[in-house]
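Postdoc handover notes: sequence design on the structure in folder B. Input tokens:
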């Protein structure tokens, strides 16, 4: 990822070109199941069974949810056999976040191709690393960090699809992995995607902290310029920091080169912020990479058996 030099103060931009571009990107509507589950959660006495029933209305969602909660990411000792079990064991907010993550990946069903699949594979791996890293380093809620990473670049597939449709990019961009990921890096260098992704989180009823962390995730100056800015809550900046540190591990996993600025100054700024040194971070990273490779090999063997 390339890091933009805009500060949080610049995120209220009203530049005509940006406003026009943002208005041309159609953000998918928040799925009814998320609206209903969030409404049920916000009741004075949430009914966990009723919330489980909402997710079970869609057989495909039920199957995807159970596959997710039984994956190595959650590390459950006992296999969850129903959504009701998942709600009782993981809690309402966790299940809503899982449903949201599943729905997000399916939101752009008309935007397909090897490039898009590569984007979501890397994003999903980064999100899983971020959640585990947050849990190991600072005890931050795994689910919020996971959702932050999934949504911080969520607008990019929509933006690329728009550019293809309008003729700015060739149709082959969607199917060519190398071309697509090169364009992803172009979009990541602009605040456009942060602002549009921020609108995405609001439309999908995500928590206020996540809305803010997604909108401000390019504001790396809060880490580079010394003490955290007082107008950015600690919880928000921690989500952002975990996202960038997890991206470092994701790049190691896929063998993707790191930006020069990351290696020379930025990694140390993020590590200082979460109060660990390079040696400790390297140790944690290696442990997580070994675990990820081990679980991937196990899944491959199971799929072949």
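Designed sequence:
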């Amino acid at each position: 990822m390339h890091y933009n030099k805009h500060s949080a103060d610049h995120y209220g931009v009203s530049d005509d070109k940006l406003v026009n571009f943002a208005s041309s990107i159609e953000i998918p509507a928040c799925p009814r199941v998320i609206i209903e589950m969030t409404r049920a959660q916000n009741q004075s006495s949430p009914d966990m069974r009723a919330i489980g029933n909402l997710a079970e209305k869609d057989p495909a969602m039920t199957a995807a949810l159970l596959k997710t909660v039984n994956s190595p990411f959650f590390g459950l000792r006992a296999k969850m056999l129903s959504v009701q079990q998942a709600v009782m064991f993981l809690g309402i907010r966790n299940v809503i976040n899982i449903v949201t993550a599943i729905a997000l990946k399916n939101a752009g069903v008309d935007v397909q191709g090897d490039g898009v699949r590569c984007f979501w594979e890397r994003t999903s791996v980064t999100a899983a690393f971020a959640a585990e890293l947050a849990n190991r380093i600072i005890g931050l809620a795994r689910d919020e960090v996971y959702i932050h990473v999934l949504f911080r670049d969520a607008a990019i597939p929509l933006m690329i699809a728009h550019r293809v449709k309008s003729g700015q990019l060739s149709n082959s961009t969607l199917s060519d992995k190398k071309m697509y990921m090169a364009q992803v890096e172009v979009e990541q260098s602009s605040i456009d995607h942060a602002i549009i992704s921020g609108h995405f989180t609001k439309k999908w009823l995500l928590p206020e902290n996540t809305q803010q962390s997604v909108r401000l995730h390019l504001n790396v100056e809060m880490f580079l310029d010394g003490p955290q800015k007082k107008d950015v809550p600690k919880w928000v900046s921690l989500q952002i920091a975990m996202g960038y540190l997890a991206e470092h591990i994701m790049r190691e996993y896929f063998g993707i080169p790191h930006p020069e600025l990351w290696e020379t100054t930025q990694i140390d700024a993020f590590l200082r912020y979460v109060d660990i040194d390079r040696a400790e971070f390297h140790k944690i990273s290696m442990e997580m990479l070994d675990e990820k490779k081990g679980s991937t090999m196990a899944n491959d063997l199971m799929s072949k058996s």
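Context for whoever picks this up: The radius of gyration is 19 Å. Don't rerun without checking with the PI first.
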